[in-house]
Amino acid sequence: MTEELMNEEKLSFDILGIMKLLPHRYPFLLVDRITECVPGKYVKGYKNITMNEDLFNGHFPNNPIFPGVLQIEALAQISACILLAKPEYAGKLVLFAGIDSVKFKRVVRPGDKLEFYAELIKLRGPFGKTKVVASVDGEVACEAELMCALK
Q: Are 53 and 97 in contact (CB under 8 A)?
């Protein structure tokens, strides 16, 4: 992390703050906490994966695995917060517009704390691109580049 980023004000959001940023609600709000956010730059946060989630009734019985597609959705949600935390984008809608270079590297199961990191690497007009990583205990579970559109 550059010295410039180290000196910027870092925000954090509990679930109520996240619900002010994102329009998602149960059962599709997939971010529990944002631990660090420099609006327009990067964001860190997490989701606690619990066996109580309905999806584990079918994915998979007797072998619960948190789906990769939901890992990507969670990363898209946290990526949106990079922009939505900026006052000029408050109340806007950030739509998922594309994905590149996705890799799944480890299984995520109930009991895991799925940690997120997203960094804005490009913003041109209403379109943005983020580099994202989801990890468990420091081990990469998923990484990708995500595109979004502001509406």
A: no
Domain interval for residue 76: 3-150
Alpha-carbon torsion, ordered 145, 12, 37, 52, to 10 deg: -10
Q: Distance between CA 138 and CA 7 in Å, rounded?
A: 25
Residue 24 known to be catalytic:
no
Number of domains in the chain: 1
Assign 118 to helix, strand or coil: strand
The answer to whether residue 1 scores a pLDDT higher than 70 is: no
Distance (Å, rounded) from C-alpha 37 to C-alpha 42?
6
Tokens of 101: 């270079």
The model's pLDDT over 60-89, given as tens digits with 9 standing for 90+, comes to 989 999 999 999 999 999 999 999 999 999
Answering whether pTM is above 0.90, one says yes
Q: What is the pLDDT of residue 114?
A: 98
CATH number at residue 26: 3.10.129.10
Active-site annotation holder among 59, 86, 106, 109: 59
